[in-house]
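In practice, a research group might receive sequence data for several interacting partners and want a quick structural hypothesis before committing to experiments. The following worked case mirrors that situation: the sequences arrive first, and a predicted assembly follows.
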Amino acid sequence: MDDVSFPKGFKAWGLACGIKKNGKPDLGVLVSEPPAQVFSAFTRNAVKAAPVLYDQKVAAAGGRVSHVLVNSGNANACTGARGYQDVTAEVAHLREAAAPKGQVMVSSTGVIGEYLPMEKIRAGIARLFAPGETFSPFIHAIMTTDTFEKRSQKSLLLDGKEVRLGGVAKGAGMIRPNMATMLAYLTTDLELDGDYSERFLAAVEKSFNSISVDGDMSTNDTALLLANGASGMRYASLSEPARKAFDEGLRGVMEELAKLIIRDGEGATKLVTIETVGARSVEDAKAVCRAIANSPLVKTAFFGGDANWGRVLAAAGYSGAELVPEKTALEFCGVKVMAQGGALVYDEDDVANRMKAKDVSVRVDLGLGQSSWTYWTCDLSYEYVKINAAYRT
Amino acid sequence: MDDVSFPKGFKAWGLACGIKKNGKPDLGVLVSEPPAQVFSAFTRNAVKAAPVLYDQKVAAAGGRVSHVLVNSGNANACTGARGYQDVTAEVAHLREAAAPKGQVMVSSTGVIGEYLPMEKIRAGIARLFAPGETFSPFIHAIMTTDTFEKRSQKSLLLDGKEVRLGGVAKGAGMIRPNMATMLAYLTTDLELDGDYSERFLAAVEKSFNSISVDGDMSTNDTALLLANGASGMRYASLSEPARKAFDEGLRGVMEELAKLIIRDGEGATKLVTIETVGARSVEDAKAVCRAIANSPLVKTAFFGGDANWGRVLAAAGYSGAELVPEKTALEFCGVKVMAQGGALVYDEDDVANRMKAKDVSVRVDLGLGQSSWTYWTCDLSYEYVKINAAYRT
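A structural hypothesis for the assembly, expressed as tokens:
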């Protein structure tokens, strides 16, 4: 079973309709009965794929969503007016095949600059709702170069009743042959009002927007939260501790998925947690995390197991955040290596051993204020270059 | 002869004083007689090395400069108050040894977080001005992991009289074992008034600030222009065409040095010229160039000889510049591959052949305005990862 169908009222499945040449699943659908309140976050790239443009309109219109159709193998990006028409045609095919009770959203991921094979997709949609068909898990239908499934689920007891959370994601950096995508689908059977949007976006900021494989941002990035109320519980009626427990549970599922994406980062051998504390503002803390996470010098040093505090300090220095070297301190994997802008004496062998682990960390204390942020990235390896230097085939 | 001593009144030389363990030259001096008006540009990193902080004070005070002392092998960065005292001590030693007629500036490049070996430097400074010593070229004394010399010189005929320009630079990315540095020294025997600073900074923007090996910015980056008037010519007295010829000549020397740094970029196999035209503003054009130049996905694609327009478009899309996919066009090595946001039909073999050259290019036409910018970067290879992943030794 897919983790997105763990909450009540959700179903999800997929099949292979021939978009991918290798015959793997490439078309999936997530269905909510009753239709769900939807919360969304899309790529901020000025170049947005057709399905993103379409979903933004659906989200803006505000109706409840019953179906999310996803294909892999083709991103329907950089396809102009015809690409957008293809999305509306997909929705029309789905309306014909499934008579949805709510709105329909669409996601695509895969090669860019090519038109969708609409005949295959039309036939695939019909088969998705045909009796007697055999289906694959939804999560397989959304994967591209992912080497493992990213899934998470949680059962919460809120004011004495069970509420469920589920989520799946795909993404492993911007992927060969072109730019691919982070797609994430979160589901819950709690009823959420429209004003939950702010909390959802804050959770996106702390999870999917706080990871970086290579600093590149795709044209198709999408995160959707569907809340259908099938548990009979409503966020607005919960006690304050129960609301906090739900917020924390949702953030936890999203953080877990985000970290799984990093673990599957192209060529990644390590998950690097970057924590910035003591910043004058949250924006400063984020800027320092982001500069460190995107520095090729820092990332290659992590690949080499090198506690290279000079590179980390230099990245923090050009992040744009307020930084005073004499007040700055650095830790690698829990060991203080620099304070007040200068090197400390530490056990180099001990740190070198800690840096060999699959989970490593760097902590920057700016010593200027109370704000902090946490970010996740991976190292930069030979394999990353190999994957991305290969000619499109 | 060093190219910085090509203009009249300049001398430059170096020697090995033992900072570098391999016995290579590591201490050099550039002398101007008469002392020179100095124009400077320093790293914008919040973490600045001690010599940068010192030179900024000298530049702000505004006196003419007769000596620039440079060491390699140790960056005197992240060395706090003691590091700054060491710079003042270096200046005092030089004053003792050479009785300079003007101000003294100091640069350092190499390992960070270690104090300068002041006894070696003190002895080295004395030897630099001792009779009977044998010297190495200045340019060798400033090199770290550079694999070749970066030098340029030009003779200009301005209003019928000769004026000379010279320059040397070092830098090959932020270099093992820690962050190293772009250092550039430009000289001319033309007399320049203080208000030339704006033009110098504009030329820096178009050369050293328009290159990127890996997007990292060092603590020690320094570009100095020394103008001593030894030609008997003065910029303020030149005809308008002669002034333009000088501006262009200076910019040309700086651009040549900047490109040489990129050619020597860590692991670089190609020089990539990135041109953005049709932007709404110069800032937008620069932002697009910078995003493309720093994208690991674009850089690995160039290493692989792949005209991957999707990655280039995506990088342009997240650059923050105004961009409308339907108005955007892309060229690789002179061949149009995308227009109006969609793929064009082109001869893939032809483009693949062109992408095999050592000099390749990408051109983005945003189709929105008249502003443009040019930027240079290198590809991202296995060798870059190898160089930077190796543990500090």
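Before designing any experiment, note the following. Residues 12 and 30 of chain B are 4 Å apart (CA to CA). Residues 240-263 of chain B form the longest helix (24 residues).
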